[in-house]
Amino acid sequence: MQDDTAQQPTNPAPTKGNILIIEDEYFISELYVRALKRAGYAVELAVDGADGLAKAETDTYDLILLDIMVPTITGTEILKKLRNPSNAKQIRAKIIVTTNLEQSEENKAAIEAQADAYIIKAEITPKQLVEFLAEIG
Amino acid sequence: MNHSEHLKAQLFRRIYVALIFVASISSLAWFGAREIVGLNYAISGIITGATVLSTCLFFGGLLTKIVSTPLDALTQAILHVSPGYEENNSLAPNLEKVRLGRELVTSLSLQVYQLASTESAQAVDVTSHRKEVIQAINVINHLPLPLFVFNGQLIVTNASEAGIEYCGTTSAEIFGKPLEESLRLEFPSESTLDNWITECQKNKVTNTIFWERVHVSLPDGTTKQCDVSAHYNRDNPSGADFIVTLFDRTESYNEDDESMGFVALAVHELRTPVTMLRGYIEVFEEELGDQLNDELKDFMHKMGVAASQLTIFVNNILNVARIEQNQLMMQLQEADWPKTLNKALDDMEIRASIKGMTIERNIATDIPTVGIDKVSMYEVIANLIDNAIKYSPNKSKIIVSAAVGKNGTAETTIQDFGTGMPASVTANLFEKFYRNHRTRGKVGGTGLGLYLTKAIVSAHGGQVWVRSKENEGSTFGFSVSQYAQLADELKNSNNKDIIRQSHGWVKNHSMYRR
What we know:
The structure holds 2 protein chains of 2 kinds. Chain A has 5 helices and 5 strands; from the N terminus they run βαβαβαβαβα. By secondary structure, chain A is α/β, with parallel strands linked by helices. Chain A has a 5-stranded parallel β-sheet with strand order 2-1-3-4-5, sandwiched between helices. Chain B has 13 helices and 15 strands. The longest helix of chain B is centred in the first third of the chain and has 41 residues, at 41-81. Chain B has a 6-stranded antiparallel β-sheet. A 5-stranded mixed β-sheet of chain B has the order 8-10-11-13-12. A two-stranded antiparallel sheet of chain B has the order 7-9. The termini of chain B are far apart. In chain B, strand 12 and strand 13 (473-480) form a beta hairpin. Chains A and B meet through helix 1, strand 5 and helix 5 of A and helix 8, helix 9 and strand 15 of B.
């Protein structure tokens, strides 16, 4: 799914920053990748948790959109690993949890402690996501 | 005293009669012996003397008995209530036996008993105190609830047997140590045992509190879910400053969590296609807008509205499940009410436009900031506007007004000019699944919107009301508290740097400051 070369001839040069999307729903990732590329971000996609974690650890991203229900390693686990304070190297990316799954109180507290933002996907359109990300570093 | 005068008179009469009797019988004896029988002086004297002696002996005994019976009864009453005489098996006086002066003895005995009972209540009787202590220890030990007692230094001084068993340990492991070495309590909110203890020691003399859904980690590594109550009594001489009782609700809470888990999963499965629908519809509207004719554009628009309606319905299901599991938690934060309201109305306007309706806004700008949970409050506004649209004719208008109301709350009203309803309907309107039978066949709905609206507004400490007239329309109103007036415990102090929005949250430090 890596496609850094512009799919759309209208895409501006990616200058706004690098985004990693960890998302297994094909339709949703297609929409997000498209909207973010059009908005000027360089976008990379991981369709499962293990791949997502490996990519995130390269620390080449400004923002990570992290789905909670992804195969192999769950989003909660990825978040815990990336934000583990005993990790020698902390990645600089801001992590935005994107999910449609209602979290248990336990998970909610963990996500609130570790993530930078939280989005219920059904509540926003791709365009609103772009606007939301524009407000975040 | 009437009773004693009465007794005196009775005694006097008896003694008087006895003396006259003795005098008469001795005169008769003398007269009989001397004049009738014709005995000499000496023998007549002896006979008269013997008669006087024997009648005096008889009356003396009788009068002594009459006088001493009330005294005996009184003595017995006093002995009966005196401490130390229990061993003598002294009985209560039998007042039936007292013939003379019974009224006096009865009233005096009653006074004795009364005095004795007040005396024993006031005095600390060592024996009975010891009994009370033993009884209290027995109650604690056999109370079928885990109960822990600790002193002002938070050291455990006592625990029920059920408590020791609950921890799966021995009293030696618990007593004399801080409670957290045996039990770790995790509270669902900022209101925790530690915070409560600090608050008590600072500001309270006695205090009682109750928590629900507390996670309890036991020494063997298991986790339970309990309701917890705690009582505080400052400087309790017996070292029982704090008493904590656990009510194990693990089974029922786990069941709740499982059914909540099912709802969460169902909601996830519904939200995923909604996300896609809204995404693709947006692409069409944004990018193909110029290429579509008006009719197709209108269709696209309607699809978008339908998708967002589905989002609200899904959120309603989720919230009803939360209410039923008692898990509807509000994260109240400071918010600009006109801004929040306007933003929600912008979204609703698209929906109103489908029926050619307009939303007239009459929103005061001087409303002080309110304390709300943005996600839930968005649903309140969406549900009320959705109803106004559903029950109004095409091309009519909705008037949304907001102003400072009673007690400084922000009051918002949503007025429509639709079907309205009679008082018989408005009375049950906020009940779950309630739907107006007159319109049920014509207008779709689940009967959950207003039930949720009321639950959410109530959870904010506000009120919901309705005024309606059939065929003229309805006005729904609700109030939310000013942030400054919110009780501190309602404020979301948990994560102050989290800014909540209708679709999620973002951390304050993540925002670009302008």
